[in-house]
Amino acid sequence: MADHSGLQWTKVSSRTYERSLDDMETFFGLAGEGGVGATDGQHWHIAVMAKIKTSIDLRKEVPTAWNALRNINPGLSAVVSGRANTGRLVYTVADEQELEPWLKETLFFHDTPKTSRDMFPIRNLTGRACLHVLLQTQELYLLAPHTHLDGIGAYTAMNNLIQALADSASVPTLNVELGGSEAQNLVPPLNVVAEIAPATDAVRGTFGAMLGKWMGGFAGVKLQHDGDTRQPCGEPRIIYAPFDVAESKRIVARCKELGVTVTAAVQAAVSLALRKQVGSTATMQSAVTIHNVRKFVVDKAKYPATGLVGPYTIPVPAVFTLPAEDDFMEMVRLAKQKYSEPDATGLLRNLPRFWGNEMVAIMTNPPPGSQAPSSLGVSSFGIMDPYVKPVYEGAAEGSKIEVEDAWLGITLYSPDILLHLWTLQGAIKLQCVYNEAYFKKETVAALLESTRQGLLKGLGLAE
């Protein structure tokens, strides 16, 4: 069994706990320093937003709920000391000395008619989680570096926060135990909770072959940029294009009938849309598939799902095979196979070592003149209703909170496009994140619309 002692939280003073970063945290920490130009370490930060409807006085009750979330997920308030590949994660206990400056630094109220999509992106230079409350639109906007949150973790933290908000309105003085006791809720990283083993020589050989094939795949269908990819980045932007509930039901039913996943069907649709948009005849496309690996947590009683907000997600380098002819269902079949391969082959459990070693080595010492390839990736979160419920209630009358919408954003300061896919309250949501310096809004909007129409046409649902 691997020695993970350095990754366990250790009390190093009367007020602080520390541990080393594991493989995925190291990778995401270094990725946060990426992007093109001066990004202030903001690359790949995660933001999750919830549009709510409630009679609760948000300005009055949110501070209590924010305190409660610190008790539930204290790791969100830790900071990385030093550079990710050599630094440590440091948590300062929430005593009287810490609480007042922490609240001032991390909690913000906005009396504006702007929505969370209008506000995106909000920069966060604290190195830990922050919360912005949009009073007029009743939205909660939680954001943190990728070392602290992944997609599922962001929705989990939002779930914990909304329930805490409902509870805070139910009890005049919600008993939130802080002052150091919350440190017992600090959770170790993926390498510990999933007992990720060290990489063997055979596994390293697999990593090397996978990396070579993946890099070679970028010669296939690839993004075409509207701006020079060597110029400094602009602001991340989003384009949101949900299906309605009726359309979503038809898509899900058709995918079940065909024995395929919605994720594989969307992957096929966006690959086809990209190939058409750039006028390519290539038959391969390099991208990254995203896999939630919380199922690998060994002791689920000790580490319940409510505490797993950090990066317990593994990106997998993938080369998609695209038939020479635009055969949609064959693309879906091949995409489904590609998504299932890492888990079916057992590779998924070893991949954290790839990101924490091979990729980190390239990132810290890139080959002379090298430039990271740009990609169009799909990040599928699945059905979000188990993570963000439609209704939350505390014990008292008037504590009800309805969730009208929830969405996630990632701050891209690189020449990439990321397609987010999730289902909430019966509706399939599609959203593209891109950087305005490298793509025109019209280009990305056309790609997204072509994906939507290609999905419906490919499944035989176009009217």
From TrEMBL:
It comes from the Eukaryota. PANTHER family: CHROMOSOME 7, WHOLE GENOME SHOTGUN SEQUENCE-RELATED (PTHR42034), CONDENSATION DOMAIN-CONTAINING PROTEIN (PTHR42034:SF1). This is Acyltransferase. It comes from Cercophora newfieldiana.
